[in-house]
Fold each of these.
Amino acid sequence: MICFENRVAVVTGAGEGIGRDYALDLAKKGAKVVVNDIGHGPDGISTAKKVVEEIILAGGRAAASLDSVTTMEGGRRIVETALDHFGKVDILINNAGILRDRTFMKMTEKEWDDVIAVHLKGAFCVTQPALNIMKGRLYGRIVFTVSSTGLYGAFGQANYGAAKMGIIGLMQSLKLEIAKYNIKVNAVAPNAATGMTRGVFPEEVIKRIKPEFNTPLVTFLCSEENIESGMIFTMSAGWFARSAMVSGKGVCIGDTERKITAEEVRERFDRIKSLENALPYENAGEIYSLGRPLTGR
Ligand code: NAD
C-alpha cells in the first residue's frame, strides 16, 4: 500500500474537480492535507472548506487555505497554512486553473494576463516558498499541472497553452536545481469532465473521463517510491503515458569552420525535420554540448 503517514501535502485548486480528488486520495492514504481554493459553491460556502470537512468526516486531517496562487503573498500564506497546522510541507500539487478562451487575434490583454497569472506565475508563487521548506528537510515531491493544449495546441487557447508550456520550461530547469535535495518534480496533463470543461465534452464522453481517473498516477508521483523527476505524463480515462520533448537524429552539414548556405539546408530539409529515431534528453547541455554533432548516437 502506498502510504503518506507523517506526510504533509498542499493541493492548490482542490475545492473542486481533479484537485479535490487528489486531496481526498492523499488524505485517505494518511497525508495531512492543505486544501487550497479561492472558489465558492452556489451556496456561498468556500469549496476548500467543504473538502476539508469531507476529509475530517472520513477520519482524515486537513486545513483549508482560501488564498490565491497568483501572488507571492498568496503563495507564502498557502505554505504557512501547512506550517501552522502541520509543521512542514512534503508534497505540493500545483493544480489551480482557469480558462479564458478566445481566438488569438481577439484575445484581450486581461485574458492573457489572468491565465498566465494563475497557471504560470501561480506555479512560481507557491512552489518557491514550499521549496524553501522542502530543501531544509531534504525531501519533497512536486507535481505541476500542464495540458495537452500546451503540448499539441487547441483552438482558442493560445493563452492557456503558453502558460502550460511555460510550466514545462520552469520544471526542466527546476529539476536540475533541486536534484541534490532529494526533491522530485514532475508534470501531468490530465483530462476530465469538470467545471472547467463544462460544455466541452458530449454526454457519453463525460461518463468515461471522471476526475478520479487521473488521481492514481499523481498519488504515485507524490509518494516516496517515485524516484523520477522532470517527466511529463499524459492521462485520460484510465490511460497513462509519458510525453516528452524530443530531438531528431538530425543531419550535420558543416565542419564548424565554413559557412553553411540556406540551399544546403533546403536539400536536406526532409532529414532535418525527420523525427525518426528521435530521443528525449535529460537536459539541454546534452543536446548542445559544444561542437559535438549528435548524428553518431
Ligand atoms: P476546475 O475548474 O474543476 O478546478 C480548478 C480549481 O482551481 C477551481 O476550484 C478554482 O476555484 C481553482 N482556482 C482558480 N483560480 C485559483 C487561484 N487563483 N487560486 C487558487 N485556486 C484557484 O478544473 P479542473 O478540470 O479540475 O482543472 C484542474 C487542473 O487541471 C487545472 O490546472 C487545469 O488547467 C488542468 N487540466 C484540466 C483538464 C481537464 O480536462 N479538466 C485538462 C488539462 C489540464
Amino acid sequence: MPYVTERTLTDIALERWSDIPDPRLKEVMTALVKHVHAFVREIEPTQAEWATAIDFLTRTGKMCDEKRQEFVLFSDVLGVSMLVDAINHRQSSGATPSTVEGPFHVPNAPPMANGANMAANAPGIACFCVGKVRGLAGEPVAGATLDLWQTDGDGLYEAQRPGIDGPWMRGIYRAQPDGSYLIRTVAPIAYTIPMDGTVGELMNRTNMSHMRPAHIHFAVNAPGYHGLVTHLFQAGGEWINDDAVYGVKEPLIVEFKKMPAGSKAPSGEIMNEPFYLVSYDFVLERKAQAAAA
Ligand code: BEZ
Ligand code: FE
C-alpha cells in the first residue's frame, strides 16, 4: 500500500472502501468517501472546527429519541428530506405532488364521518375542505382514506398541547362513492419548527426563516393507487415563499376563501361566524401507471 499524503489519501481511502461485497453498500460508501473528502478539501477545516462539527453531530444524536428526531429536522432544513421525497415520488404530471411527512403525524387517527368536525373543541376559525379524490383519468376513487393532521388555531399540534386527553386535530375521512369528501376543521396557522435543539442553534446563526407557512397535512390512500403524503398550503400565507423545510410546491397552494358570517357552509348549515372554504381535488396515480423507478 502506498503511504498517504494529502494528495493520495482520498484515492487510498476510496480503494479500501471499494472492498464491499454488497454492491449497493459499496456504491453508497464510495460516494460518501468521495464527497466527504471533497467537502473537507474545499472548506479546509481547522482541527478546532472539525471538533465543533463532531460535537454538533454528537449533541444532535443525543437529542434523538422516540419522540424527538433532531437528525430528521437537520435533514429537513438542509432540503435533503424533500430531495429524498422527490426522488422517490416521480409522479406523472397531473398527479398531486408529495411533500415530507414531518414529525407530527400520529398513526391510527380516529375515523370521521363525511362532514364531521375533527376540531370540535379547538381554537381557530372554522374551515371546510371539499373536493374529490380521483385518478389521473378522472375516475372517482371511492373509499380512499384521507388521514389529516394539522395545527390548531394557536399553531399547536397534539404533541405540543399539554394535558390533551385523546386525539387532537387529526382524523381519517373516507371518500364517498363519487370520490367526494367533506372535512370540517379549523384553519391552521404558520408555526416555527422546533428551535430548542442543535438545529435551532444553527438556524439562529443564519438569516433564514425558521417558520413553516400555514398548511394541513394529508395522507391519501386507496387500494391499487400509490399512497400520497402531502400538504395543502394557504395561498398568500406568510412564509409561503421561504418554508424552512422546502415543502411548498406550486400545485399545493390553494385559496382559503373567506366566507362572511351568515353564509351557507358546504354541510348545508348557515354559519354564524365567518369561515374558510378550501376546494381541492387530490389526484392519485394508479400503481401500474407509475414512472419506472
Ligand atoms: C411539519 O410540517 O409538521 C414539519 C415538517 C418538518 C419539520 C418540522 C415540522
Ligand atoms: Fe406541519
